[in-house]
Specification:
This protein has about 400 residues and is an alpha+beta fold. The chain is about 30% helix and about 25% strand. The protein contains eleven helices and 14 strands. The chain has helices at about 40-55, 65-85, 135-140, 145-150, 190, 195-205, 210-220, 250-255, 265-275, 320-340, 385-390; strands at about 1-10, 20-25, 30-35, 95, 95-100, 105-110, 115-120, 125, 170-175, 180-185, 230-240, 345-350, 355-365, 370-380. A hairpin with a 3-residue loop joins β5 and β6 (about 105-110). α1 packs antiparallel against α2 (about 65-85) and α6 (about 195-205) packs antiparallel against α7 (about 210-220). The protein is globular, with a radius of gyration of 31 Å.
Length: about 400
């Protein structure tokens, strides 16, 4: 059975921001990092709303750990979106969220946005989450390389976040855990300033979690500290072997506190079978002559009364098979085209003059139909972009 042996968390404003819009939560077995966005300190409000939901703990309702983590993300999104609709200064506010849960033998995570989770295991440092960002989509489509993504001018534009839309789709994963595993949750204020390989070196070379956390924040600030920087680190340890006879169950945990042990599943099943009354054997059917089983002849239908109209048979309308196949193929082609368009993103300007990430194809059809929908409004006015980027929009 695994548990959190130690953890360290810290958030820093950085060198170029006046306020810190990041928030974090660190209370085993839950850990989270949220990176807010939006003007007039709306990002700070959004990230803290997300953390308030995490503070309530994993929902008690049924389902897997991943399903309950996604429910937390959905609840946070609901609260942020509802508040943004009641205050014009907070319209469009949002936050990223990465939340991890440490189970007895595994670690689960749910996230939306570009805050990340890493793992250091036996000297190997690896990223466990995928960014929901424009450049990450371009990397996945093979249009740019990971090295080009690190220097891309639009690398801060994310395609998924909590708050801007009424619904959000969170990614979730579960990995088997081991003793001595070390996990890092961080906002992009770290990874946008410090190369991933160097982040791994700093975590690997540190003698303690606190030393690693301070080194990471110092490295981001030394590189310019253009954004808020938040790191949460935790390390796992083994607290005991699994008892003989199978995994630890809820009944075993109750027994450890002095309560009466419940019967093992196999014993309970055997007792239920033993207590079941004997099943009555079905009575034998008397042998009958096969000729006696023949159906009796049907009574002839009485003749129609004088003047009664004959009964009309319903005629079935038959649709030509060729027409059905043609309609099916047309529908399949249209559906495939729609799905293909949903994997494409482009950047443009909204009607309010803000930089916006659109999902779909940048074309307008007759009758006012569009092939695209706004996916994320950044809150950055187009007028603040450099001239060449502003002309491109």
């Amino acid at each position: 059975m695994l548990r959190v042996a130690d953890h360290y968390e810290r958030s820093d404003t950085g060198r170029q921001r006046r306020a810190n819009e990041d928030a974090f939560f660190a209370r085993a077995p839950l850990f989270a990092v949220a990176d807010g966005m939006g003007g007039a300190q709306a990002g700070e409000v959004a990230s803290h709303l997300a953390v308030e939901v995490i503070q309530q703990g994993l929902p008690d309702r049924g389902g897997s750990v991943e399903e309950r983590l996604r429910a937390m993300v959905e609840e946070a999104n609901k609260r942020i979106n509802a508040l943004s609709r009641t205050d014009d200064q907070r319209a469009g506010m949002g936050t990223t969220l990465t939340v991890a849960y440490v189970g007895e033998q595994e670690v689960s995570v749910a996230h939306g946005g570009d805050s990340r989770q890493y793992r250091l295991r036996e000297g190997r440092f690896e990223r466990l989450t995928d960014d929901h960002s424009l450049v990450e989509e371009l990397v996945r489509q093979g249009k740019i390389t990971p090295q080009e993504a690190d220097e891309h001018p639009q690398r801060s534009i994310i395609t998924r976040a909590l708050g801007p839309e009424a619904a959000v789709e969170a990614d979730s994963h579960t990995w088997p855990a081991r003793p001595a595993d070390l996990y890092l949750l961080c906002s992009d204020g770290l990874t946008s300033m410090v190369p991933e390989a160097h982040v791994g070196e700093l975590v690997r070379d540190a003698r303690s979690l606190s030393e690693a956390g301070r080194a990471l924040i110092d490295a981001a600030n030394d590189a310019g500290g253009r954004d808020n920087i938040t790191v949460v680190l935790f390390e796992l340890e083994d607290v005991g072997a699994v008892p003989a006879g199978g995994d630890t169950t809820e009944a075993d945990a109750v027994t450890a506190t002095g309560a009466e042990r419940t019967p093992a599943p196999a014993t309970a099943a055997a007792a239920a079978v033993a207590a079941r009354p004997p099943r009555a054997e079905p009575a034998e059917e008397p042998a009958t002559d096969p000729a006696a089983r023949r159906r009796e002849p049907r009574e002839p239908r009485p003749p129609r009364a004088p003047g009664e109209e004959p009964r009309r048979r319903r005629r079935r309308v038959r649709v030509p098979t060729g027409l059905l196949l043609s309609l099916f193929f047309l529908f399949a082609i249209a559906l495939s085209g729609w799905y293909a368009s949903q994997t494409v993103y482009f950047v443009g300007a909204s009607g309010d003059g803000f930089v916006t990430v659109y999902r779909g194809l940048p074309y307008d059809l007759p009758a006012g139909l569009d092939l695209y929908t706004p996916n994320y409004v950044s809150g950055v006015p187009v007028t603040e972009l450099p001239g060449n980027q502003r002309r491109a929009l």
